[in-house]
Design brief:
The chain is α+β, with helices and mostly antiparallel strands and 350 residues long. The chain is 42% helix and 18% strand. An eight-stranded mixed sheet has the order 4-3-2-1-5-10-9-8, sandwiched between helices. The protein has a five-stranded mixed sheet with strand order 11-12-15-14-13.
Length: 350
């Protein structure tokens, strides 16, 4: 499907707002594009807030040359979008998310045969299969997982492209330790696939863990501090990881980017000095048996740290059970360095 420029702008902006409302992304993570023609597509700009984004902020990119026009740079994942459009002529809309269930399941690096899971009872209700007929229709026969690659790199784009070519009927592709990308004929199909992917990944996750996943969280304690904001969170997976009393590496690359190269653990009676030491070069620290402390320049930043920490702990929970590896150390350091450099630049521009 080809969109007119006006239609594409409306569809992309609508999808960005819907992704935020449904919790598929936080802050500026993720990106959205719409096909304008065989040679061009419209994509979200790099680092711009979805809340303030306007139609004229969106960027037109050439599918083959990656040359662009607009007042902002296109998303750094433009290469991945271009490769998918090149290999899927019927694709008219692409959504790249960092949704929690799909991201957490991606740490296993597995392809999931949905035809097989349509014959397996879900953990919560044996009368309902893990994958319903409607979800199978929405997502295709398989959810493939692309090999790991640093975010925004050609390696990641090529890995996704390989999965797209190999699995022609798949509308969703997981990216190991990263997130997911959805390709549809139009915005409605891509967004529906994103929602169905999250539901299916939740059921596959529970099946693999052999337990019903608790989603209720205790109320977070929030404090405004001089020069920043403080959140004490007790979300389910953060609380579970805090009981281990151990330092936790990043299992997802956005965790390395925004929170640091690991999350240390302090005792509940730790002094302010010990807390400050544990938070050096980090934005989160576990409190043994009592969740975690997340910090930021303001409440929104602290909340974003809490969001990625819970998602990382969910990924860690299944990774530790299934002996899956975290983000490689050198990759985690590069992700953190690139993020801090890019984010500091954006702060200066604001």
């Amino acid at each position: 499907m080809y969109y007119t420029l006006t239609e594409a702008r409306e569809a992309v902006l609508r999808a960005c707002r819907e992704m935020q409302e449904k919790g598929l992304i936080v802050r500026t993570w993720g990106n959205v594009s719409a096909r304008l023609s065989r040679e061009e597509f419209l994509i979200t700009p790099s680092g711009r807030s979805y809340d303030a984004m306007k139609a004229e902020d969106l960027v037109i990119v050439n599918t083959r040359t990656l040359k662009y026009s607009g007042k902002y740079k296109p998303s750094s994942e433009k290469n991945m979008h271009a490769m998918i459009y090149e290999r899927r002529p019927q694709c008219g809309f692409i959504v790249h998310t960092h949704q929690q269930n799909a991201s957490a399941l991606s740490v296993l690096g597995e392809d999931f045969d949905l035809d097989a899971y349509s014959k397996v009872p879900s953990f919560a209700d044996p009368a309902v299969p893990v994958v319903t007929a409607e979800e199978r229709e929405s997502l295709g026969p398989v959810i493939p997982c692309a090999d790991y690659g640093l975010s925004s790199t050609k390696k990641l784009a090529k890995s996704v492209s390989k999965s797209v070519v190999k699995n022609t009927g798949a509308k969703a592709v997981l990216m190991r330790c990263h997130g997911a990308v959805l390709a549809g004929r139009d915005a409605e199909e891509a967004m529906q696939a994103a929602m169905d992917l999250e539901a299916v990944c939740a059921k596959i996750y529970e099946k693999k863990c052999g337990e019903l996943i608790e989603r209720e969280a205790d109320e977070a304690l929030e404090k405004d501090l001089p020069g920043g904001s403080f959140l004490h969170v007790r979300t389910p997976f953060v609380l579970e990881m805090s009981k281990r009393g151990k330092e936790l590496p990043p299992y997802l690359d956005d965790m390395a980017q925004i929170a640091g190269l690991s999350v240390k653990c302090i005792e509940q009676e730790a002094t302010a000095g010990k807390i400050q030491k544990a938070l050096k070069d980090r934005d989160a620290v576990f409190v043994r048996n009592d969740g975690a402390i997340c910090i930021g320049r303001n409440a929104d930043e602290a909340d974003a740290v809490a969001h990625v920490l819970e998602k990382n702990c969910m990924a860690a929970n299944i990774a530790l059970k299934k002996a899956a590896d975290p983000v490689p150390g050198i990759s985690a350091r590069l992700e953190r360095r690139f993020y801090l450099k890019k984010y500091s630049t954006l702060k200066e521009e604001d």
